[in-house]
Amino acid sequence: MQISIANQFTIATKQENDGRWIAEILEIPDVLVYSLTEQEAIKKVKALALKVINNELAVSQLVELRKKIAQGEEQIRQGKVVDGEVVFQQLQEKLEQMEKS
């Protein structure tokens, strides 16, 4: 059985020979769960998918922030940013906050 989630993700379910249900998100590698019922498997795989997506977003935000810091450092070295130290400090603080959460 396949169920579409908001027309973006597809959950595929199948009952195993031992009676357990497996549910997976086809568009996200390695997002699959086993459970005793199909409904429980669907609920668990949705929760896992949200965690994976949230983690990917956090990682991409950190990468983007590190790029901005590198650009800011370069602008400071070139003397292009008068308040570069302030901008750099703000970006560093934001990065540290994101890494803690």
Protein architecture, described:
- This is Type II toxin-antitoxin system HicB family antitoxin.
- It comes from Floridaenema fluviatile BLCC-F154.
- The chain is an alpha+beta fold.
- It has one domain (2-100).
- It is built from 2 helices and 4 strands; from the N terminus they run E-E-E-E-H-H.
- The chain has helices at residues 38-77, 84-100; strands at 2-5, 9-15, 21-25, 32-35.
- Helix 1 (38-77) packs antiparallel against helix 2 (84-100).
- The model has no long low-confidence stretch (mean pLDDT 83).
Distance between the termini: 37 Å
List the secondary-structure elements in sequence, H or E.
EEEEHH
- What is the number of E strands? 4
Oligomer: single chain
- How many separate helices? 2
Strand content: 15-25%
**What is the mean predicted local confidence, pLDDT?**
83
Task: Using the alpha-carbon principal axes, give the shape.
Answer: rod-shaped
Q: Roughly what percent helix?
A: 55-70%
The tally of domains stands at 1
The strand order across the widest sheet is: 1-2-3-4
Which structural class do you get from the secondary structure elements?
alpha+beta
The major sheet is characterized as:
4 strands, antiparallel
Query: Which spans of ≥5 residues are poorly predicted at pLDDT below 50?
Result: none
Q: Tell me the radius of gyration.
A: 21 Å
Protein name: Type II toxin-antitoxin system HicB family antitoxin
InterPro entries: TTHA1013/TTHA0281-like (IPR035069)
